[in-house]
Amino acid sequence: MEDVLLRDGRALKHVVVREYVRGLVAGNAPGSPAPSERELVHRFGVARMTVRQALDALVTEGLLERIPGRGTFVARPRRVATPIIGYTEEMARRGLLAESVTLLARREQAGPGVARALNLTEGDAVIHWRRVRRGDGAVVCLEDNYLNEVLLPGFLQTGMPTSLYDALDDRGLRPTWAEDSISADTVGDEEAALLEVDPGTVVLRHSRRGLVDDKIVNVSRSVYRADRFTLWIQLGHDA
Amino acid sequence: MEDVLLRDGRALKHVVVREYVRGLVAGNAPGSPAPSERELVHRFGVARMTVRQALDALVTEGLLERIPGRGTFVARPRRVATPIIGYTEEMARRGLLAESVTLLARREQAGPGVARALNLTEGDAVIHWRRVRRGDGAVVCLEDNYLNEVLLPGFLQTGMPTSLYDALDDRGLRPTWAEDSISADTVGDEEAALLEVDPGTVVLRHSRRGLVDDKIVNVSRSVYRADRFTLWIQLGHDA
DNA sequence: TAGTGGTCTAGACCACTAT
DNA sequence: TAGTGGTCTAGACCACTAG
Questions:
Q1: Residue A94: strand, helix, or coil
Q2: pLDDT digits (tens, 9 = 90+) for B37-61
Q3: What is the C-alpha end-to-end distance of chain B, expressed in Å?
Q4: Which residue's C-alpha is at the least distance from the C1' of C7?
Q5: A172 and A102 in a common domain
Q6: Fewer CB within a 10 Å sphere, N or C end of chain A?
Q7: Domain ends where: B74, B96, B131?
Q8: What is the reported pLDDT for A11?
Q9: Domain range holding B177?
Q10: Does the structure show a pLDDT above 90 at A159?
């Protein structure tokens, strides 16, 4: 929560102006005008620099744009890259119902690969959560998640959620940074049985390391049926 | 290029201060101090608001951070998502030498799929560029690029570059936005021969639509040998 | 206590846009 | 010509940090 009050309870003027303008233009079409700086000066009885400080913040966050000689206007929303989402949201984007069956949800000792990925020592405790995931009823994916238990005390006891990312969000641990690797492969017998395909069928493998700040929250390894899943990614941003 | 001069040739003071500070701290370790605002006021003989305008710009771009009561310091560089890069840079990231053999580079009439992807009408002229791409000598990928000819007049005549993205960059058309789709598949006879694998071998398919602003610059369809290529992607940003 | 950044004032002149 | 944003001044008081 942002500090909007001084010690004596007075509101910061530039914040008052900023939020007034934000409320005014909220939902307005791109290109619609915001109040002019001098109009805000008059309305709030503040100096122009104070108004500019308020508008600067809204320009920086991309809500407004200034056009010299013309005025200040609602900016066109900028495109931003694909957010970091999990299976549940991936399915929602496709308009499919995400369902899961938990095959495993327990405390384990980290093996060498998982330990390295989570930046732990081999044998440290991790939470291993394995699910078969469906979209509109059809088997789509087999997902293994490994969570750093130190960051998630009591996670196994609180009842497993549908969306891991929602649960992480509740604890302020939703990843803001992800390192993904994506490859094509064929499945072995065990994975084939769970995905309801023949051994040797082509699959898409997707591994992810999820971080918030410098904390590695989870590592996931997903195997998608190639006939039922294509990964979509949007990269970059507007100028 | 930014305007740094007024009509009469005088430099904008906040730009002078900003670039002075940028030069001072360039390459300095995160946490090292920048000059204080009042020190800059004294050095340049300007008002403090002018100095603040200069520093605000550097804070917004992530170079500096302010700590109230302490001073202004070089900020820790923020992580940003994977930039939009092509094969040449993908290989460079792996420390591999990117080489290509052009199989096709010609003007064609857009088929239905390409026309839709480039937002053209079927039969419109497109540039089709097909290459077999190698990394450290080994065949890695078969890439078909379709370019909007209207945006790239004379492109075929200027001699084909190694890196498409470098060539686009030279024309101010390097994509800043990309829509990618990634799937696993098996190859047919023609692709198999070019990739030097058996038909039916598993491959990674990567399609991309590259845009700058609202202009669709190119559409690419790449087929990677699954045994020689894993896609790496980093998503998100620091708080 | 001295120094820092945060907030704020009450003006000023400029270039540019639209009428 | 009137209105807009861009730049700039010369101060002021505040809260906070560090020695």
A1: coil
A2: 999 999 999 999 999 999 999 999 9
A3: 29
A4: A12
A5: yes
A6: N
A7: B74
A8: 85
A9: 87-225
A10: no
**CB of A80 within 8 Å of any CB in chain B?**
no
- Rounded to the nearest integer, the mean pLDDT of chain B is 93
Give residue-wise pLDDT tens across range A181-233. 999 999 999 999 999 999 999 999 999 999 998 899 999 999 999 999 999 99
- Set of chain B residues whose Cβ sits within 8 Å of the Cβ of A176: 236-239
| A185 and A118 share one domain | yes
Which strand C bases fall within 7 angstroms of a protein CB?
Answer: 3-12, 14-18
Q: Is B182 on the interface with A (CB under 8 A)?
A: yes
Tokens of B52: 């603040």
B128 and B42 within one domain: no
Question: Chain B within 8 Å of A234 (Cβ-Cβ)?
Answer: yes
Q: What is the pLDDT of residue B3?
A: 42
For residue A31, give the CATH number of its domain: 1.10.10.10
pLDDT at B231 exceeding the cut of 80: yes
Residues 6+ apart with CB under 8 A from A61: none
Asked whether the beta carbons of A51 and A39 are under 8 A apart, the reply is no
Secondary structure in 3-state letters for chain B: CCCCECCCCCECHHHHHHHHHHHHHCCCCCCCECCCHHHHHHHHCCCHHHHHHHHHHHHHCCCEEEECCCEEEECCCCCECCCCCCHHHHHHHCCCCEEEEEEEEEEEECCHHHHHHHCCCCCCEEEEEEEEEEECCEEEEEEEEEEEHHHCCCCHHHCCCCCHHHHHHHCCCCCCEEEEEEEEEECCHHHHHHHCCCCCCEEEEEEEEEEECCEEEEEEEEEEECCCCCEEEEEEECC
| Residue B59 in tokens | 């804070």
- Are A133 and A173 within one domain? yes
Residue–nucleotide distance: A3 CA to D15 C1' (Å): 13
The mean per-residue pLDDT over the stretch B194-205 comes to: 98
Residue A10: pLDDT over 70: no
Distance CA B63, CA B55 (A): 9
Nucleic chain C contacts, protein chain A, residues 179-198, CB cut-off 7 A: none
- Residue B41's identity, in one-letter code, is V
